[in-house]
Amino acid sequence: MPPRIATRRRLPSLACYAMSSMIALTITLLLASTPQPALALEHVTVALPGQPENKLSGEPIVEARDGGMLLKTADGAIHRLPGSTIRDRKSDSEPLVPLTREELTAQLLAELPAGFRIHNSKNYIVCYNTTPTYAEWTSSLLERLQRAFISYWKKQKSPVKEPEQPLVVLVFADQASYADYSKKDLGASVSNIIGYYNLETNRIMMYDLTGMQAFRQNAGARGSRHDISTLLSQPEAEPLVATIVHEATHQIAFNCGLQTRMVSNPFWLTEGMATFFETPDLASSRSWSGIGNVNYSRFDLFHDNYDAGKIIPLERMLTDDKLFQTPETAVDSYAQAWAWNYFLIRSRPKEYAAYMKTIAAKPVLVEDKKGQRVKEFRAAFGDDLKTLEDDFYRMMNRVK
Length: 400
Ligand SMILES: [Zn+2]
Description:
By secondary structure, the chain is of the alpha+beta class. The chain has helices at residues 17-29, 101-111, 132-155, 175-186, 225-232, 238-253, 267-277, 296-307, 314-319, 322-325, 327-347, 349-360, 372-381, 385-398, and strands at residues 33-35, 41-46, 54-64, 69-73, 78-81, 86-92, 117-120, 124-128, 167-172, 195-198, 203-207. A hairpin with a 4-residue loop joins strand 10 and strand 11 (203-207).
């Protein structure tokens, strides 16, 4: 590609480390597992390390040879239960019925510290201890995203459906209380991550961004309509809101049938698709105009890397998930994955939809065999990767 003529203001691009480590953790734990032939409800008593004995009822998605299992419960969570933690187990032949909004709400309020309240919207339950105004702003952003996301994939003829129960989002009043709650998931990186989707609990965790020092006009101010407008008027807020949209995209994709939790999802696909949608549309209109636009913070980085000869070879990008998890290579890999997803979604929509379907149908907790990723990619997009790459660079070259 020729050198860029115009230089755009570059906003920092954030990588989504939380999601990545979650998948890796799960896949290594129950590797020796066999699929469960018939679905039934299991009632198990479990004693996880450092926790009191707990009773769980749900559908085993996969069972391990040592008696351990991945158990999906009626709140949409998937629990990793090693065989050594299961004290008692009974089965019946009842189907798993998802909790209703009222049941989910009761569970959330019982679980969270005192002071949390609920904001209901059509497709979300926002559980918050900041202001009702901020909770409402969050839910309206996510409602617009979900509506636009589902209609986008329907237009692409992908078999997407509305989530089977409301999606749960926790919004903490400030970074400190969020960090305190989330450190069990994120460890030391909690201070760098402003929000994340947890594949196991199926929830999003975040905090009220208007309370951040950088955006505050008055000490202690937080969560009012005015504070939200002040936040959104500052360019520094854009990557932060993009992160929330990115995480919400993961949650929707894993709950509308487009992607499957706990299968071997290639990171270039999961993360690249989330970056395709992350351009925030902060206008208050009902539609989401940002979908399919160039994500300039990702594109500019990709372009600079291209000029600097720092492009990851295609087959490596398809197969090496560690590129997306290692801090030194993550942001560059996200940029390149954005470029490839942008190219494939825009120029090969049917093939992309078919490829997504193949990946979503993979067995749970089974790692890919050597060469499988490239084989699946070729099956969807053709054997001639050289021509495909030529087309890719041609399209990237036309991006203005
Ligand atoms: Zn992500």
